[in-house]
From TrEMBL:
Pfam families: PMP22_Claudin (PF00822). One of its GO terms (cellular component) is bicellular tight junction. Belongs to the claudin family. This is Claudin-1.
C-alpha cells in the first residue's frame, strides 16, 4: 500500500502526460502547415493557442508532482529519525521531471505568443516611394 502523497504525485504525473498528448494533438491541428481548418486562419491560430494553454497546464501538473516528491525526499533525508541506510537523495528522475515541466511550460508560452493580432482601425502604412537606382555619375 502506497502513501497518499505518493499516489497523488503519480496521478499528477499521469495527468500531465495525458494532457501533454492532448496538447500535442490540439497544437498540431493549429499549425499552419496542416490542411485541417484551412479555410479559417483565425480559428486555426486559436487552436494553436489553446494547445499552448494545455501545454502550460500539463507543465504545471508535472512541476507540482515533481516538486512535491522532491520535498518529500528532502524532508526524509534531513529527518534525524530516518535510518542512514534508507535515506533517499535527489536522483536524475527529479531533474528530468523539472526540466520536462519547464520545457512544456516554455513551449506552451511560445504557442500562446502566436496569438493573432487584432485588427486596428488605422489605415495601412505606405512605404516611401522607391527612387531609380543611382549609376554613380550623378555627382559633379
Amino acid at each position: 500500500r502506497l502513501l497518499g502523497s505518493l499516489q497523488a504525485t503519480r496521478a499528477l504525473m499521469v495527468a500531465a502526460i495525458l494532457l501533454g498528448l492532448v496538447a500535442v494533438f490540439v497544437a498540431v491541428t493549429g499549425m499552419k502547415c496542416m490542411k485541417c481548418m484551412e479555410d479559417d486562419q483565425v480559428k486555426k491560430m486559436r487552436m494553436a493557442v489553446f494547445g499552448g494553454v494545455i501545454f502550460i497546464i500539463a507543465g504545471l501538473a508535472a512541476l507540482v508532482a515533481t516538486s512535491w516528491y522532491g520535498n518529500r525526499v528532502a524532508r526524509a533525508f534531513y529527518d534525524p529519525f530516518t535510518p542512514v541506510n534508507t535515506r533517499f537523495e535527489f536522483g536524475s528522475a527529479l531533474f528530468i521531471g523539472w526540466a520536462a515541466a519547464s520545457l512544456a511550460m516554455l513551449g506552451g508560452a511560445f504557442l500562446c505568443c502566436s496569438c493573432p493580432r487584432r485588427e486596428t482601425s488605422y489605415p495601412p502604412t505606405r512605404g516611401y516611394p522607391k527612387n531609380a537606382p543611382s549609376t554613380g555619375k550623378d555627382y559633379v
